[in-house]
Write a structure and sequence with these properties.
alpha+beta, 312 residues
């Protein structure tokens, strides 16, 4: 069945993410993890949902594969700029026990996005899927590779031994529940400007079933500015907490604030029942900042994506 993506679909997709994570975490695709699904749906569906097509594949009552095609649209950002997205992107997941369904996913995507430039991010560890994408005419995306490419890696660490966080005098940890919606939105926009994030985006995030305001953490500066923020998405089935997004106000970078916030988040995740944590970042050599930050608090790479493109 093909239709617009719904909140109910996202919960089914998160269930598949949990099942794949339990057995082959290296095969969870980019944008297909428990937390990424909630974050991307929540922040974007109000503005972009009309351009989101999906198809679901079931085995009995279990979802075993899905495709989420994001089609051309106009994006408006907080600085007043407008960007026209002219190509298509596919987020997707296939359960490894039903690997052959990747051909149906590809055929559906090619039909849904016919005539458009099409991109996709399968996992580099999924050798079977990579062969099938190649057979359908997809090639390595040169723009996504190289020293400043946009490919991403997933990092993980366990929570058995977590360093205590330390903030400079006058700074303090807050939660979104404490700070309120306006502060939470401002923290994200300040860190990521130019950004499409709005109060409506945050309301969508808050309404996702996986969101917890007590696991949405911030660092408040002495003047009341929210210097850093991060959301943790707790997968209770796998006892894993995923950081997405993580951002720091440009005026407060290189002060150790984000590192302290991550350590604080790891402690909160452990208190909530998690035994592992994950976070994604750009992996290319020309993007060392976030990777170095995550490595400094004990994360290490466990998987990466393999960007592909097909030009019609």
């Amino acid at each position: 069945m093909t239709d617009l993506l719904t909140a109910e679909d996202v919960q089914l997709m998160q269930g598949l993410a949990q099942r794949v994570t339990a057995t082959r975490p290296d095969l969870v695709n980019a944008d297909a993890s428990f937390g990424e699904l909630a974050w991307n749906w929540g922040k974007g569906h109000a503005a972009d949902g009309a351009s989101w097509r999906r198809r679901l594949w079931f085995d009995g009552g279990d979802l075993v594969a899905w495709g989420w095609a994001q089609l051309p649209r106009r994006v408006r950002r907080d600085d007043g700029s407008v960007k026209d997205v002219t190509g298509a992107y596919l987020a997707h997941q296939v359960h490894p026990d039903h690997a052959e369904l990747v051909d149906e996913v590809i055929d559906w995507y090619d039909t849904t996005a016919a005539g458009l430039e099409r991109t996709v991010l399968p996992g580099a560890a999924d050798e079977f899927a990579l062969r099938r994408w190649t057979a359908h005419g997809y090639e390595t995306d040169p723009a996504a590779l190289g020293d400043t490419g946009s490919w991403t890696q997933l990092n993980e660490r366990d929570l058995t031994d977590v360093e205590e966080p330390a903030l400079p005098d006058g700074f303090r940890f807050r939660t979104a529940d404490e700070a309120g919606p306006e502060a939470a939105v401002r923290a994200h926009v300040d860190a990521w400007s130019p950004s499409t994030y709005t109060a409506e985006s945050y309301e969508g995030v808050r309404k996702t079933s996986a969101y917890r305001g007590d696991l949405h953490i911030l660092v408040e500066a002495p003047d009341g500015t929210m210097a850093c923020s991060a959301i943790l998405w707790l997968d209770e089935v796998n006892r894993t907490a995923e950081f997405e997004p993580v951002g720091t106000h440009p005026a407060y970078r290189r002060r150790g604030l984000a590192r302290a916030m991550l350590l604080h988040g790891l402690h909160r995740a452990r208190a909530a029942g998690a035994t592992h944590a994950t976070v994604a970042c750009l992996g290319a050599p020309g993007h060392p900042g976030a990777r170095g930050l995550y490595y400094s608090v004990g994360f290490r790479q466990v998987s990466r994506d393999a960007p592909l493109i097909k030009v019609s």
